[in-house]
C-alpha cells in the first residue's frame, strides 16, 4: 500500500518534471531562431518530425520499415509540384503531400504487414526502390535536377512565408502538431494495443485483436506524419530532389532513431538534431562525413544500445530506484 | 507646412542615401576581404570529378593572383555537400548571410547547382558553376549573377556526337540510362550526328545504377554500329566501359564514345580498361605550354593532373578576382557586368567569352584515350582528335531559353 502511494507520488512528480521539460523545450524552440540559423533549425525540425513518425512504427509497434524515404520524399515531390506547377497555396500543398504519403503508406503497408521481421523490412525496401525508380523516370520530378525554385507563398493568403521568422514559426507549429499527434496516438488505448503487439503479437491475437488492421493503421499513420515532414521540408528548401527518396534516406532515419533512443518520445528528436548537425558541421571540416557518422553509430551500438535518450532514461530510473531489476 | 516639407525632403534624401550605399562603398571591398566558397562533393561518387582537387585549384588561383586584391586578402572556404541539395542550400545561405562569402563556385551535380544558383540570385551574389552539366543553368534557370564555366550537356553532345561523325564514326548505337538526363543527352547527340550526316541504328535503355551491362553491350556489338555511345554519367559510365573492355568492343573495331567522362575517371579506370574511349573535355594538360605549366604545378601539389572541372575552377576563381580588381569593388552588379564583358584568357582556355545567359563560350576538344603502350609517362592519357569551336559547342544566348538579354 505504502509502496503504491510512493510510486504514484513519484509518477506525478516525474509527470510534472516531464511537463516542465516539455515547456522548457518549446520555449527554447521559440527563442532558437534568434540565436541559430533559421534554415538549419527548420531542417532539424523536419527531420525530427520524420524520425518521430518513424519511431511510431519502430519504437511503439515494433515494425522496422526500410522504405520510409518513399513517404518523406514522395510528399516533398507532391507538395513541390502542387505549389510550383499548379500554383496551389502552401497549406494546400502540404496537405496534398501528406495525403499522398498516406496513400503510399496504405499501399506499401497493405503488402508489407503480411510478413514479419526481416521479410517485412525487405518488402518495404523493395517497394521503396520501385518508388525511387518511378521518381527517377517520371517527367514531373525532373530527374536529377529535381523540382527547383518552389515559391513559399503566403500561408492562408496572409502570412508571407518568404520571411525567415514567419516560415520558422509555421514549421515549428507543424512540428509541434505532428509530435503532439504522435504523443496522443502512443498514449491512447490504440497505442497500448500497438505496444502489446510489439511485446507479444500472438498474445494480442489471442486476446481478440485483429493485429493486421492495427499494424496497417500504425503504418499509415507513420507514413502520413513522415509525409507531413517531407512536404514541409520541400517548402523550407524550396525544392524536392531525388536525395529524399533514396534508400540512404530510409537508412538515415533509422540511424537518427537508433542514436536518439527507440521507443522514447524525445529520442528521435535528439537523434535527428545530432545527425543533421554532424552533416552540416563536418561538411566544412574536411573530415569525411560518412566515416564520422558511421563511427558514432558503432559507438552507440556497442556502448549505449538504448540510444542517447534511452540511456539517460534508464540511468535516471535506476538512480531513483524505481527501475527494479526485471 | 514648411517643416513637413523639410522633413519629407530629408527623408527622401536619407532613402536615396541608403539606396546609394552600394555605389557609395564601391571604392572598397566589403568586410575588408574577398571570400570565395567552393561547394562540392568531397566524399561521395564525385569526389574525384571535382572534390578536394577543385579546392586546391581555387587556392592555386588565389596564390597566383598574389593573395590580395585591391589590398584586401583573399580567402577560400570549402564544404562537402555530400550530393544533397538541402545540405548545399543550407551551407550556401549560411555563407552568404553570416560568413560574408562573396561568391560560390564549383557546385557539382545539377540539383545542387540549380538550388544554389537560385539562392545566389535571391541574395544577389555571384555563382560560377564548373561541376554540373545541365543547360538549364543558362536556360530556364539563368541568373544575371550566375555563370556556367567548364562544360554542359550541349557541349558534350556536340563534341562527342558531331565531331566524331566527321572523324568517320557515322553510325551509332546508344546505351542510355533511362531517365531525363540520359534521354536528353541521347536526343541532343542524335541531332548532331544526323546534322553531320551520320545515323543512329538503335538504342537500349537501362535503369540507373545497373551493374551488369553485358546484354546491352552485346546488343550494341551486334548492331554493327561504328560507334557505341554511352549516354550516362559517373559510376555507370565507368562500369559500362570496364565491361566493354572485357567484351573486347574496341579491339573488335567499334568505337566507344563516353558523353560525360574526364581525365579523373580515366585515371581511376586505368588505360587498360579505358583505352580507345572517345570523349570531350575543355582542358587537357598536354595541350600547349600554358596548360602544361599549370598541369605540372598542379601535379606537384596534389599528385594528379587536373581535369576540366578542376582547371575550370582555377579559371573561374582567377577571372572573378580579375573582375573584382578591375571593378575596384566586390559589389555584385559591377563585378557581374565585368565578368560578362571580359574575355577569358588563361591556362584553361583562350578567347573564352561570356554570353548574356551566363554561359562561358570556349573551345572544346575531342580526345581518344591512349593504349597502355602508347602512353609515355604518368597522366599521358589522351590523343588529340579535333577542336570544337566554342560557338558550335555552346547554345547561343537566343537559343538557350534564358530571358536575360
The main β sheet of chain A shows up as: 2 strands, antiparallel
Question: What about the largest sheet of chain B?
Answer: 7 strands, mixed
Mean pLDDT of chain B: 89
Distance between the termini of chain A: 21 Å
Query: Which CATH top level class of the largest domain in chain B fits?
Result: Alpha Beta
Which oligomerization state do the chains in this entry correspond to? Answer: heterodimer
Main sheet: strand order of chain A:
1-2
Strand content of chain A: under 5%
Instruction: Write the element-wise H/E pattern of chain A from the N-terminal end onward.
Output: HHHHHEEHHHHHHHH
- Please give the count of helices of chain B: 15
Which regions of chain A contain 5 or more consecutive residues with pLDDT less than 50?
Answer: none
> Strands across the major sheet of chain B, in which order?
8-7-9-10-11-14-15
The domain tally of chain A reads 1
Task: Write down the Rg of chain B.
Answer: 23 Å
Q: How many E-type strands of chain A?
A: 2
Question: What is the overall silhouette of chain B?
Answer: globular
Quickly count the domains of chain B: 2
- The count of helical stretches of chain A stands at 13
Percent of sequence in beta strands of chain B: 15-25%
What structural category characterises the helix and strand content of chain B? alpha/beta
Amino acid at each position: 500500500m505504502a509502496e503504491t502511494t510512493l510510486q504514484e507520488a513519484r509518477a506525478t512528480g516525474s509527470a510534472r518534471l516531464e511537463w516542465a521539460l516539455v515547456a522548457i523545450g518549446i520555449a527554447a524552440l521559440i527563442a532558437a531562431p534568434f540565436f541559430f540559423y533559421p534554415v538549419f533549425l527548420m531542417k532539424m525540425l523536419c527531420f525530427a518530425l520524420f524520425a518521430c513518425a518513424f519511431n511510431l512504427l519502430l519504437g511503439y509497434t515494433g515494425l522496422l520499415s526500410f522504405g520510409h524515404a518513399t513517404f518523406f520524399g514522395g510528399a516533398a515531390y507532391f507538395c513541390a509540384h502542387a505549389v510550383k506547377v499548379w500554383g496551389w497555396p502552401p497549406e494546400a500543398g502540404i496537405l496534398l503531400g501528406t495525403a499522398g504519403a498516406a496513400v503510399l503508406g496504405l499501399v506499401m503497408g497493405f503488402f508489407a504487414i503480411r510478413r514479419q521481421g526481416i521479410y517485412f523490412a525487405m518488402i518495404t525496401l523493395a517497394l521503396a526502390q520501385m518508388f525511387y525508380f518511378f521518381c527517377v523516370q517520371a517527367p514531373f520530378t525532373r530527374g536529377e535536377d529535381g523540382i527547383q525554385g518552389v515559391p513559399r507563398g503566403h500561408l492562408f493568403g496572409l502570412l508571407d512565408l518568404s520571411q525567415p521568422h514567419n516560415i520558422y514559426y509555421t514549421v515549428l507549429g507543424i512540428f509541434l502538431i505532428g509530435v503532439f499527434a504522435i504523443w496522443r496516438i502512443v498514449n491512447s488505448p490504440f497505442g497500448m494495443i500497438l505496444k502489446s503487439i510489439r511485446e507479444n503479437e500472438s498474445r494480442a491475437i489471442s486476446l481478440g485483436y485483429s493485429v493486421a488492421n492495427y499494424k496497417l493503421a500504425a503504418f499509415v499513420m507513420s507514413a502520413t506524419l513522415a509525409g507531413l515532414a517531407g512536404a514541409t521540408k520541400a517548402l523550407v528548401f524550396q525544392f524536392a530532389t531525388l536525395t529524399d527518396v533514396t534508400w540512404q534516406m530510409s537508412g538515415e532515419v533509422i540511424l537518427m532513431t537508433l542514436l536518439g533512443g527507440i521507443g522514447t518520445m524525445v529520442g528521435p528528436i535528439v537523434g535527428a538534431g545530432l545527425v543533421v548537425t554532424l552533416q552540416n558541421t563536418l561538411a566544412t571540416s574536411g573530415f569525411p562525413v560518412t566515416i564520422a557518422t558511421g563511427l558514432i553509430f558503432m559507438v552507440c551500438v556497442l556502448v549505449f544500445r538504448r540510444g542517447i535518450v534511452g540511456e539517460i532514461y534508464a540511468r535516471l530510473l535506476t538512480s531513483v530506484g524505481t527501475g527494479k531489476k526485471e | 507646412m514648411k517643416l513637413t516639407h523639410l522633413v519629407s525632403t530629408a527623408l527622401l534624401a536619407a532613402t536615396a542615401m541608403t539606396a546609394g550605399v552600394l555605389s557609395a562603398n564601391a571604392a572598397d571591398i566589403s568586410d575588408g576581404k574577398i571570400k570565395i566558397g567552393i561547394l562540392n562533393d568531397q566524399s561521395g561518387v564525385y569526389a574525384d570529378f571535382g572534390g578536394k582537387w577543385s579546392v586546391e585549384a581555387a587556392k592555386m588561383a588565389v596564390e597566383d593572383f598574389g593573395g590580395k586584391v585591391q589590398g584586401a586578402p583573399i580567402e577560400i572556404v570549402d564544404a562537402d555537400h555530400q550530393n544533397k541539395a538541402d545540405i548545399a542550400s543550407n551551407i550556401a545561405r549560411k555563407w552568404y548571410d553570416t560568413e560574408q562569402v562573396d561568391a560560390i563556385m564549383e557546385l557539382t551535380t545539377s540539383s545542387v547547382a540549380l538550388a544554389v544558383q537560385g539562392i545566389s540570385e535571391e541574395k544577389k551574389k555571384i555563382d560560377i558553376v564548373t561541376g554540373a552539366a545541365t543547360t538549364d543553368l543558362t536556360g530556364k534557370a539563368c541568373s544575371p549573377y550566375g555563370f556556367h564555366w567548364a562544360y554542359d550537356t550541349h557541349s558534350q553532345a556536340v563534341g562527342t556526337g558531331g565531331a566524331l561523325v566527321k572523324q568517320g564514326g557515322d553510325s551509332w548505337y546508344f546505351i542510355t540510362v533511362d531517365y531525363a538526363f540520359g534521354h536528353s543527352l541521347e536526343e541532343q547527340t542524335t541531332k548532331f550526328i544526323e546534322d553531320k550526316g551520320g545515323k543512329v541504328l538503335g538504342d537500349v535503355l537501362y535503369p540507373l545504377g545497373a551493374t551488369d551491362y553485358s546484354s546491352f553491350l552485346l546488343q550494341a556489338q551486334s548492331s554493327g554500329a561504328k560507334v557505341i555511345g554511352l549516354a550516362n554519367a559517373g559510376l555507370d559510365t565507368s562500369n559500362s566501359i570496364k565491361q566493354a573492355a572485357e567484351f573486347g568492343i574496341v579491339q573488335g573495331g567499334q568505337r566507344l564514345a563516353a558523353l560525360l567522362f574526364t581525365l579523373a575517371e580515366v585515371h581511376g579506370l586505368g588505360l587498360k580498361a579505358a583505352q580507345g574511349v572517345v570523349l570531350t573535355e575543355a582542358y587537357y594538360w598536354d595541350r600547349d605550354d600554358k596548360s602544361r605549366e599549370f598541369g605540372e604545378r598542379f601535379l606537384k601539389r596534389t599528385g594528379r593532373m587536373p581535369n576540366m572541372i578542376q582547371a575550370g575552377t582555377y579559371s573561374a576563381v582567377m577571372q572573378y578576382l580579375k573582375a573584382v580588381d578591375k571593378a575596384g569593388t566586390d559589389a555584385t552588379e559591377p563585378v557581374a557586368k565585368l565578368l560578362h564583358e571580359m574575355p577569358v584568357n588563361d591556362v584553361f582556355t583562350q578567347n573564352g567569352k561570356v554570353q548574356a545567359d551566363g554561359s562561358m563560350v570556349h573551345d572544346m576538344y575531342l580526345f581518344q584515350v591512349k593504349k597502355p603502350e602508347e602512353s609515355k609517362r604518368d597522366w599521358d592519357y589522351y590523343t588529340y582528335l579535333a577542336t570544337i569551336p566554342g560557338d558550335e559547342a555552346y547554345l547561343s544566348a537566343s537559343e538557350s531559353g534564358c530571358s536575360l538579354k
